[in-house]
Task: inverse folding
């Protein structure tokens, strides 16, 4: 079934399935790499596996950001706040909120507190919903690329003598 998914689905959807297999400990990344080694597409996807992805939506977003040449890190731990979905540069935090996330009312204030704490430490937090990733991708990537073009994903180095 996994070989069928890899060969018949768009690569970002196939990667989401493969990441979930590793994340849920149904298969190891090494096992999947061996399984997928028979096709060019399988070998490529095996190099992109990330069992740390918290959801299929994160896997899809990660694949799409990287396909635009963006270097993203996944599930970066922030002391006191826990792991965050994606990090571009050293300060642009991207959170992906899936559909199930919107039904948990208690998550809303916690997420806003996390955003504030990231901002207090010089970070920028962008939140995208399921619809932004799956149905409004051109607008989503345009937003992120705008931040990158303006170099807002990296901290400015302070010059000596400046505050």
Result:
């Amino acid at each position: 079934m996994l070989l069928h998914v890899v060969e018949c689905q768009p690569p970002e959807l196939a990667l989401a399935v493969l990441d979930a297999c590793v994340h849920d400990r149904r298969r190891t990344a090494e096992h999947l790499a061996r399984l997928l080694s028979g096709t060019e597409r399988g070998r490529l996807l095996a190099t992109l596996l990330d069992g740390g992805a918290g959801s299929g939506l994160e896997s899809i977003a990660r694949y799409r950001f990287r396909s635009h040449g963006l270097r993203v890190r996944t599930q970066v731990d922030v002391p006191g706040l826990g792991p965050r979905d994606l990090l571009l540069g050293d300060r642009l935090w991207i959170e992906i909120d899936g559909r199930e996330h919107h039904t948990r009312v208690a998550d809303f204030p916690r997420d806003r507190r996390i955003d504030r704490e990231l901002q207090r430490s010089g970070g920028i937090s962008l939140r995208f919903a399921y619809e932004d990733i799956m149905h409004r991708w051109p607008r989503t990537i345009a937003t992120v690329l705008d931040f990158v073009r303006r170099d807002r994903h990296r901290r400015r180095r302070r010059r000596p003598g400046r505050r």
The chain has two domains: 1-51, 57-154. Strands lie at 72-78, 82-88, 92-97, 124-129.
